[in-house]
Design goal:
mainly alpha, 67% helix
Length: 410
């Protein structure tokens, strides 16, 4: 009988990815009765209908969401000529079916062939990611885009500086090609999910390690040029510099909603306000710039009133980031048990074990992973932790750490 490791080949990974896509699509057609969507989808519909980039056409343009994902949705709707959500879901299934191969390419920078393939397989057996592409939400696009950025970036700095903590090169592209691709992917990441901005910025500044001033300056200029149409558009519309989106202070303010923390101890906002027309829809009815500034004042007032409670709430929301949002914390239904609760338990346990192996085998990578996870954890600790999607933006990276446990797979 052949050893199990003999079946861990790239060809089999690709075959399983195709089956993964087919099963996800069949599951959606047979079992999913409706597909949840949020503001991005409404904006996309308005774009296709000729109303412009807006949420409520009668109120004019919006910058509540960064442009890449809504325009991506609008492209699918325009191409299919269908306002049915199924084509979007199928495309999202395809995107997440590519992720196992992308994880393989990312892991291959640090691990042997078998371990790298395991990281992709671990992604496929996670029930949360199997289901989540049925939700029309930016995470489904951000994950493959961000992994692609990481692969290009790490291959580039390996070729430029030959860092020893990056063991191998996983792309056959030339240094010149990678240099061209990186700024475009960087702009794409920023305009897809701005919360990754700090990680991106630190990565770009690391290019200066060997005094590559020319390429750094050129990259920054290209990224600025690519982002500038959105920034200029926002300045024309709002008469204000808005580099990404308008909802910055809304996210800080919403951290005081009961749905974010679940404790009366931090309840500074009455239920009547939180429940007002589903508050985020209510927000869209206001002047985005002015209302966001009002929320800034209220949020700062809450913090000044009791800064220690804000710190406590931040720690609590950091804990919720790694466990369950308030909406699901007491949900022990079979559906949630399979799709989220058990995966979180297993992932957290094996992630800790995996990080132990990362620390022993590759200390620079350990600190980089720790920084990335802390960045996302702290962002949602300081702002709000209402949705499951926030953790999913970065949860795939745990499979890289866990793959370090499989060193004996040679």
């Amino acid at each position: 009988m052949k050893k199990l490791s003999n079946y861990l080949t790239v060809k089999n990974l690709l075959l399983l990815s195709i089956l993964y896509f087919i099963f996800k699509t069949l599951f959606s057609i047979v079992f999913v009765q409706s597909f949840t969507s949020v503001e991005d989808y409404v904006i996309a519909i308005n774009v296709v209908m000729g109303n412009g980039y807006c949420y409520y056409p009668e109120l004019g343009p919006t910058a509540f969401k960064t442009p890449v994902y809504p325009l991506f949705l609008a492209l699918i709707i325009s191409f299919t000529h269908l306002f049915n959500k199924l084509p979007i879901v199928i495309v999202q299934h395809l995107l997440l079916s590519i992720v196992p191969y992308l994880l393989y390419k990312l892991s291959k920078l640090f691990l042997n062939e078998k371990q790298s393939i395991m990281s992709g397989l671990l992604f496929m057996i996670c029930p949360t990611f199997f289901y989540y592409s049925n939700v029309i939400e930016v995470t489904n696009l951000f994950i493959p885009v961000f992994i692609s950025w990481a692969i290009v970036y790490l291959n580039l700095i390996k070729q430029l500086y030959d860092f020893q903590w990056i063991k191998y090169i996983s792309l056959s592209f030339s240094t010149k090609t990678l240099k061209i691709i990186l700024p475009f992917l960087t702009a794409l990441v920023i305009l897809t999910q701005p919360v990754a901005g700090l990680v991106i910025a630190v990565g770009l500044f690391a290019i200066l390690y060997k005094r590559s001033y020319g390429y750094f300056a050129l990259s920054v200029c290209i990224i600025a040029m690519l982002i500038s149409p959105w920034v200029i558009r926002n300045y024309i519309v709002f008469d204000r510099f808005v580099p990404t989106k308008t909802s910055l202070w809304l996210n800080f303010y919403a951290g005081y909603f009961m749905s974010s923390h679940g404790s009366n101890k931090y309840k500074f906002i009455p239920d009547s306000v939180e429940n007002k027309n589903k508050y985020f829809d209510y927000y869209m009815l206001q002047n985005e710039i002015e209302f966001d500034q009002e929320l800034k004042k209220e949020f700062i007032g809450f913090v000044i009133k009791n800064p220690y409670l804000y710190l406590e709430k931040t720690v609590l929301q950091m804990y919720l980031f790694w466990t369950f949002t308030q909406r699901y914390i007491n949900d022990y239904s079979l559906n949630f048990l399979i799709s989220r609760r058990l995966p979180v338990y297993f992932l957290n346990i094996f992630f800790v074990i995996g990080m132990f192996f990362v620390f022993r085998q590759n200390k620079p990578l350990f600190w980089i992973l720790l920084f990335i996870f802390l960045n996302f954890t702290l962002v949602y600790g300081l702002t709000q932790m209402i949705n499951v999607k926030y953790k999913l933006d970065i949860e795939w990276l745990e499979f890289l750490a866990i793959a370090f446990c499989f060193k004996k797979l040679e």
